[in-house]
Write a structure and sequence with these properties.
By secondary structure, the protein is α+β, with helices and mostly antiparallel strands. Helix content is about 35%, strand content about 45%.
């Protein structure tokens, strides 16, 4: 009986423990710069058309918000996902927008107990 109650307790919590990579995919599909910025590292290597450098989360959020306003996301398809030996995780995919397709690259790493995006790049897809 205790085992069943224990499982019943865990099932509802599953929705609150979503993976950062899954959230990144969701937020890209939604064009949600605000939520993406919440997992940006304080010193973020960031690139979208017109902006390339190391930015604070608030600066990068502003650039990303403008990108999404000009390029409304339609879909996002993951091309590659993986993990390096040092624990960093990468996500590469194609973001289809109303204006065309873009390649997205995201690199995350555990920082101060939280998984943070340390590198984020959107560029026109040349494939």
């Amino acid at each position: 009986m205790r085992f069943i109650l224990f499982l019943g307790f865990l099932v509802p919590l599953g929705g609150f423990c979503q993976d950062t990579q899954d959230n990144i995919i969701k937020w890209l599909k939604e064009g949600n710069a605000k939520e993406l910025a919440k997992v940006f590292n304080p010193a973020l290597t960031f690139s979208v058309p017109g902006h390339d450098g190391i930015y604070s989360p608030s600066q990068a959020e502003g650039f990303l918000k403008r990108f999404f306003e000009d390029n409304k996301p339609v879909s996002f398809r993951v091309s590659h996902q993986g993990k390096s030996a040092d624990g960093a995780r990468f996500l590469i995919g194609i973001l289809t927008c109303n204006t065309g397709a873009f390649k997205v690259y995201s690199l995350t790493k555990m920082m101060e107990g939280r998984e943070r995006i340390i590198q984020f790049q959107i560029e026109p897809n040349q494939d």
